[in-house]
Amino acid sequence: MASSEAKVRLDLNNPVFQDHLLTLQKPERHAALDTLQKIRQLTWNQLYRDLGLKWEKITSVRPPQGIDAIYSLRITQARRATAHRDGDFIRLLTIAPDHDATYGKK
Prior knowledge:
Blueprint: E1 9-11, H1 15-22, H2 26-40, H3 44-49, E2 56-57, E3 71-74, E4 80-86, E5 89-95, H4 99-102
């Protein structure tokens, strides 16, 4: 049973997310890893309220079947990641090349 007081657990197994993370330039990759380290230390309530992460529901993109909603969060100063919540896990999906790409805009 998922709880908003539970610690956030990371799922970094999505191949698209891994590809995006591993092809970032070194400074951005390090910033992304710092953000992931920060997320691991938060409860879900803290993650939802964190002003630096800016957890937001994406309404312009329809989530895949079996997923309630897709969210974006700031993973580096210049980039946002997409993710969804699955129990206590945050399942990371992508790192957008730019801010607008996160929301499916061209």
